[in-house]
Amino acid sequence: MKKLLKITLALMMALGLQLTSLKVVNALNIDLSKAGTYQIPVENLKSAAPLPAVQKAFAGAFGDTLEVTVDQDGTIQAVATLQNMIINMGSEYYANVLTIANGTTLSTKVEKSTQGMGGETLEVEVPEKISFELPQLDENNSTVLSITVDFMNYFMGQGKDYPTNVTLTLDLDNAKELQKEYVLEDGTYDVPVNVLKENSDDQSMAAQAVESAQITVQNNEVVVTLKLKEMTMYGQTASVDKMEYQLKDGTYKEATVIEEEDGHPKKVQFKLDENKELTNVKFYYGGSSRGAIARLQLKLDGLTKVDPTPETPKDDEDKKDEENTSRFTKDGTYSVDVALWNATSDKESMAASAINSKAKIIVKDGKATMYLSTKEMSFGSIKASLQEFYIGSEQEDYKNHGATIIEKDAQGNPTLWAFELPHENEYINVMMNPHVAMMGNMDLAARLKIDYTTLTYVSDKTELEPNTKKDDQQENTNKDQTANKENQINENQSVKTGDQTSIQLFMTLFIISITMIGFILRKKHEA
């Protein structure tokens, strides 16, 4: 019975080999033409022996996927992660793939192995991963491989290698490109950079926003510095508001802004979570809270150092130290020029006239508080004053970061506000509401521009003195008040001069009249 089973199995495997060999005659290399490394699902691995128990066991011998690498010359190399097989033919027989034609064992493991029909089952060292040259695929994405299996060697080859054939079918439709993990030498490098679309290798529109890239490597940790620039989208000029990059766990983290220009990031920096060529990123434009997804491509092959002594990449502690580096060298009172700018464009806000151009910053125990004075503004024929003032943008929880009203005028309108500086960048996002019904009584977005080049240390006072609270307002309005007084004086002088002129004229006419009356009466008397 055992001999008959051997003969039957051998004939079936031989027949299967002939049939599959005929099929390979028409082999077509219809895919995998692009160099790269791919993870490709194994659609089927079918033994030449059509015995259900053998086919079932062999089906999972290569696992769920192969890692396939296509070289520049078109050579295709695959790596199979091998699985222990159980052939159930009344009894369970344990089997393992030992070799694949034109293959090399990369690693080994210990698995159960049955020494042929009726043989004992032992734990032996067998291949875990085998790399092999992948033959051309036919129109069904299939190819035939010659392998040896320990159980078959004992059962059919009396302990010697007994090659058997399997038909491997790959699911190319669901292949995924894998990225090479780079190991880089310490140093600083200029890196060719591109931005690709999320789901294709076409260039993304966001590529216009990236001017250049540089990486700093230390202990194989890679810190990327991107230099950004303005871009044109649908005929409009736009700048990046912020950029996020994806971590290994799929979450996104905002890149650190290390240099700004006109309120927009000029340089951003982040550490690669994986040293690979492609990193998923999100770019945010025009105050939008929705990021445009793309893939940042850093070409890490064949780099040339630009600085043999690398700058130490910034870790969290370094960033904290940077954050603690302040424009304010000591506690006290400072003066600085300010202006109200449009939320997205580099021009004055329509409410720019509402704030005075000088502001105070009082620093106490390292905490900086700005005191901003405001005044009446005009919208055409409408006059109004700011009634609400918040720190933050529309995309933030600005309602919980309102400025404190310090002073009001006789009509109850706020004239002096205080708030803690959220940072020391040139622009601060703000929201305002002048409570104008015709404008919808809505919160308006703007940016407070702080000209730190005018920052001046005034005194060591760390409290706002009551008798100086209005200094800034007076400084900005004294000229107007002086001009008004001069106009009033001139007007008064003009009025008085007019009054005096009228009296003098009246007296002159009165005297002339009396003289004429006297002359007439005298003539009558003489007559």
Automatic annotation (TrEMBL):
<keyword id="KW-1133">Transmembrane helix</keyword>
<dbReference type="Pfam" id="PF05031">
    <property type="entry name" value="NEAT"/>
</dbReference>
<feature type="compositionally biased region" description="Polar residues">
    <location>
        <begin position="475"/>
        <end position="495"/>
    </location>
</feature>
<feature type="transmembrane region" description="Helical">
    <location>
        <begin position="503"/>
        <end position="521"/>
    </location>
</feature>
<keyword id="KW-0812">Transmembrane</keyword>
<feature type="compositionally biased region" description="Basic and acidic residues">
    <location>
        <begin position="312"/>
        <end position="328"/>
    </location>
</feature>
<dbReference type="InterPro" id="IPR006635">
    <property type="entry name" value="NEAT_dom"/>
</dbReference>
<feature type="region of interest" description="Disordered">
    <location>
        <begin position="463"/>
        <end position="495"/>
    </location>
</feature>
<keyword id="KW-0472">Membrane</keyword>
<protein>
    <submittedName>
        <fullName>NEAT domain-containing protein</fullName>
    </submittedName>
</protein>
<feature type="compositionally biased region" description="Basic and acidic residues">
    <location>
        <begin position="463"/>
        <end position="473"/>
    </location>
</feature>
<feature type="domain" description="NEAT">
    <location>
        <begin position="329"/>
        <end position="466"/>
    </location>
</feature>
<feature type="region of interest" description="Disordered">
    <location>
        <begin position="304"/>
        <end position="328"/>
    </location>
</feature>
<feature type="domain" description="NEAT">
    <location>
        <begin position="184"/>
        <end position="316"/>
    </location>
</feature>
<keyword id="KW-0732">Signal</keyword>
<feature type="signal peptide">
    <location>
        <begin position="1"/>
        <end position="26"/>
    </location>
</feature>
<dbReference type="InterPro" id="IPR037250">
    <property type="entry name" value="NEAT_dom_sf"/>
</dbReference>
